[in-house]
Amino acid sequence: MESAFARGDYRPQRGAAPSAASGLQDATDELHPGEVAPTDQELFEAALAAEEGTAVFACARIASKHVGDPGKFAEVPCLARMEESLLLAIAARGVQDIVFVDGNCATCKFRACNKGIDDTVESVNGLVEAMGATPRVRRASQFPACALVEDVDGLLGDARRDFFFHTKDRAKDAVAKSAEVLVFKSNNPQIASLRERMMVSAEGTLPQFDPERHPRALDALYELSQPDGPAEDEVFTRLFGSVSIDSSLCTSCNMCTVFCPTGALRKSDEVPDRDGEEEGGIGSYLEFSAADCVQCNLCADACLKKCLDVSPFVPTDDLFSFEPRLIWRPDPPKRKGVLSSVRRSK
């Protein structure tokens, strides 16, 4: 089958906003805008100023030791802040070596995130390798030579001045945050609008969000791929997912579409050909978009017949195709009438 790259179906979405971990961050951004710090843009700009093609990200714990030069690395509260779409975008801009420098995670208050950081590194490297590209992400316990501080005394002096300079700004932020809490606790129309957002839609689905980081990840993968397309036919990833349904067990209850949080799995307006041999002239279609799937498994959990499977193995042709994949399912079984089980006495 000709790939989406060869057909020219896929084109990077240049106007797309930045998009498991990535999907959760999308939902957080939507409900609490501006509370994710540092922002994606700040981290992206810091990475583009990389020394010798190496972008360094350090957790706050090891950054406080003043071993690394703050002008040569980006500091995050915990390296769990880093996610695939941002790292792929950095790699697509030509950064070959992305280094995570952390302190002693075993004694850190965020130590539960350690496994998740490893998963992120593995996920990004797997996606980049599947595209046939060379950038890699790695973890380290020490700063690389290109990010080490040269003038310790000057650095500490700048840090003291910076602390007092920003004290006033931090006080203003605290006041604004307190005012925001008071407004939220009052009888404000914002509460009503939130209630409206949590209502079931006219199509019978629960509230959905747009995985905005996914388009940026796809754009980066497109840039990282070979001219004739990805190096592999499928990718193993936690960022996207692939859905399959056992049509012999499915009863078309539509519970999977009700609970899909992104609309990746939805009812289709396409009608099966009544003369078709494959569908037998009956049934209906679901539409599945791998690019919108966040592999949350809510559809599989909601499936009453347990006939739906979500796989981390995603065909690259599905991933980069604009058209959703159609999944056929049979017509729902006919329900017996109320009086059908009542025996009439003669």
Question: What is the structure about, briefly put?
Answer:
With 346 residues, the protein is an alpha/beta fold.
Overview of this protein structure:
GO terms for molecular function: 4 iron, 4 sulfur cluster binding; metal ion binding. Residues 1-34 are annotated as: Disordered. It comes from Muribaculaceae bacterium Z82. Residues 241-270, 284-313 form the 4Fe-4S ferredoxin-type domain. This is 4Fe-4S dicluster domain-containing protein. The chain is of the alpha/beta class and 346 residues long. It folds into two domains: 15-232, no CATH class; 240-329, Alpha-Beta Plaits. The chain has twelve helices and eleven strands. Helix 5 crosses helix 6 (114-130) and helix 5 (84-92) packs parallel to helix 9. The longest helix is centred in the middle third of the chain and has 34 residues, at 152-185. The N and C termini lie far apart (65 Å).
The portion of residues forming beta strands comes to 5-15%
Q: Taking all residues together, what is the mean pLDDT?
A: 78
Number of beta strands: 11
Strand adjacency order, main sheet: 2-1-3-4
Number of helices: 12
Largest sheet: 4 strands, parallel
Task: Spell out the helices and strands N to C.
Answer: HHHEHEHEHEHHHEEHEEHEEHE
End-to-end separation in angstroms reads 65 Å
